[in-house]
Amino acid sequence: MKVYFLGTGTSQGIPIIGSDHEVCKSIDFKDKRLRVSAWITWEGYSYVIDCGPDFRQQMLASNCRKIDGILFTHEHADHTAGLDDIRPFNYRQGDIPIYAHKRVLVDIKKRFEYIFETENKYPGSPSVKAIEIFDNVPFSVGNKMAIPITVMHGKLQVFGFRIDDFAYLTDVKTIAESEMEKLKGLKVLVVNALREELHDTHFNLQEALDFIALLKPEKAYLTHISHMLGFHEVVQKKLPDNVFLAYDNLEITL
Ligand SMILES: [Zn+2]
């Protein structure tokens, strides 16, 4: 299985428009972060997690040519706003399956009403096949099963996903003991780490490191990163040996 980090930034992306912050002005490509998303492939199967406002650019950069489904973590704009740009995939493949919690599907239908129009739908509009996913109910993705993991983003429920020994969690602030059980024995864990200061709805760096220390995956990659976390190169040196800052266009193989 290959995991390609399409975007590793927090909601505004890095650089932030108009910012004079030193990290926003960095010339290191690892300090430029599109909105958070990942692309997972194995044996010809291809799934994308989230579809934020940078989706088009991410599909071009990664040279992704086929999508078997989009797994949504939650409805926030930095995770959903790019849905109109699935059209090139629609023209080649037809409807694209989207997997999400019922609440998220309802929200997406509001945000993208025209996609779900049944009468007089504008020709060429995106088309999706909405598939609801449920707490504690694994669902099939290609020839594998994805296990949904419920995490809390402040008061909002968010799904993370485990496929084999890989798990991807973003926008986590808290997680129940029962969900921790589903994350044992991981080879690779991806988890969000916003910055050093505490935040109401996201793990800060220390919370993410504590979480990784509890779960003990072989390797962990941090994502959904703010410019406030600092320069990639500086932060990476402070991390434990098995923890890495993800960066855009990083590809790992499991
Ligand atoms: Zn987010």
TrEMBL record:
Domain Metallo-beta-lactamase: 35-224
Signal peptide residues on this chain, from the entry's feature table: none
Matching Pfam families: Lactamase_B_2
SMART domains: Lactamase_B
Transmembrane segments: none
InterPro entries registered for this protein in UniProt: Metallo-B-lactamas (IPR001279), RibonucZ/Hydroxyglut_hydro (IPR036866)
CDD domains: metallo-hydrolase-like_MBL-fold
Highest taxon, organism lineage: Bacteria
Protein name according to UniProt: MBL fold metallo-hydrolase
Species the sequence originates in: Flavobacterium gilvum
